[in-house]
Amino acid sequence: MPDTALVVVDMLNTYEHEDAETLTRSVREVLPNISDLVERAAQRDDVEVVYVNDLYGEWNAGRSELLERVMGGRYRDLIEPIAPAEDAIFIVKARHSIFYETPLEYMLRQQGIDKLVLVGQVTEQCILYSALDAYIRHMGVVVPRDAVAHIHQELADAALRMMEVNMRAQIVAADECLRG
Questions:
Q1: Ramachandran quadrant class, 133 (left: phi over 0; alpha: psi -120 to 50; beta: rest)
Q2: I want to staple 27 with a disulfide (CB 3.0 to 4.6 A). Which of 20, 68, 149, 150 is the partner?
């Protein structure tokens, strides 16, 4: 039974926004680490892989619809390595936190999961707010600094420091996660 969830945050993205150029550069840097962590987690019985993704205002969308939309876009190469499998746990969200009005907490509690490894985007936004929400729910948080993408480097650095100091998150390298 898993006690840890690797949560892949907001990686299904069309990158059709004003910060896309900066964000996609960062995503390209961290994508190999995210992909590696997803592969490692899939091989372990004690880790559940969970995808939580923004709906982008498409209120009737689910995994299939979001995946089809982003795979048809310009940045397919940023999606393919980490695209959720048909049977992957996939939860949609409408706001920054992975917990806000989603069934994630209930699902984690049902499975006895009390530790999250957060990967994805954006460090200074959704990763930060999700780490805070996990912390106030008394869940352990691990954030591999080289498996989260950012828009603003200085804000991402500050966010990682806040997670470490204020939320007792473990900020580590991706190769330190999910070993053994």
A1: alpha
A2: 149
Report the C-alpha gap between 136 and 6 in whole angstroms.
Answer: 18
Alpha carbon distance 39, 33 (integer Å): 10
The whole domain housing 40 covers 4-176
CATH number, position 140: 3.40.50.850
For residue 87, count other CB atoms closer than 10 A to its CB.
Answer: 6
Q: How many domains does the chain have?
A: 1
Q: How far apart are CA 147 and CA 36, in angstroms?
A: 10
In angstroms, what is the C-alpha Rg of the chain? 15
Per residue in 25-57, pLDDT (tens digit) is 999 999 999 999 999 999 999 999 999 999 877
Query: What DSSP character marks residue 7?
Result: E
Beta bridge partners of 51: 8, 90
